[in-house]
Design brief:
single chain; mainly beta; twelve-stranded antiparallel β-sheet; 1 helix; 14% helix; binds calcium ion
């Protein structure tokens, strides 16, 4: 009892010593939190109300990138955009952009049930990968890969362990060339057959 009381006093003294020292340090080190945000890496959020019900349904996240030659000149770049497409208060689509404002990733709940259905990966705005989620599941079961925007491979998880066990190779998204199976269970197709 005596010991814990002493500890408590020590703790309080230590705490007040720390909290006494911290504000002075903070003032000299940190910018004023309510001052306008400037400089690179900062995120600016803009909200839009498309449905007109007074609640936001579109969110834009921007970054200010200073000009290397003149840091006072900043360019505002859209880095992320979210939207509630059916206006039920739940976000259904998220898009991420690179530093040049080109689409690089997309997440979508296409049937508006609150579960993710698709992740799409782009390279400089060109379709690269598509991960499709099974209904009600939090992980993908189909992975599609694209070259110059055309599908050249599809992997599928049929036994539900989260890893591919069936694969297809495609010619430029038009014709299947090979089918593969994961025979040894390592999550990669290792037994292949020609499609025709
Ligand atoms: Ca929604
Ligand atoms: Ca969904
Ligand atoms: Ca599997
Ligand atoms: Ca395998």
């Amino acid at each position: 009892m005596r010991l814990s009381a002493a500890c408590l006093i020590l703790f309080v003294v230590a705490l007040s010593a720390c909290s006494g020292a911290q504000p002075a340090k903070k003032d000299s080190m940190m910018p004023d939190p309510i001052a306008p945000v400037t400089g690179g890496g900062s995120s600016i959020i803009e909200k839009g109300d498309v449905s007109g019900d007074g609640k936001p349904d579109v969110w834009g996240y921007y970054k200010e990138i200073p000009d290397p030659a003149n840091p006072k000149v900043v360019t505002k770049v859209l880095v992320k955009k979210e939207a509630d497409l059916n206006f039920d208060g739940r976000k259904d689509i998220l898009r991420e952009f690179d530093d040049e404002g080109i689409l690089r990733r997309e997440e979508a709940d296409l049937d508006f049930d609150g579960n993710l259905d698709e992740i799409v990966v782009y390279d400089k705005g060109v379709l690269k990968e598509k991960h499709v989620f099974r209904s009600g599941s939090s992980r993908p079961f189909i992975w599609k890969y694209f070259e110059e925007g055309k599908m050249n491979r599809m992997d599928r998880d049929d036994n539900g362990d989260g890893r591919p066990d069936y694969c297809e190779l495609w010619y430029a998204g038009e014709k299947i060339s090979k089918r593969g199976w994961d025979k040894d269970g390592n999550g990669e197709c290792d037994y292949w057959e020609n499609a025709d």
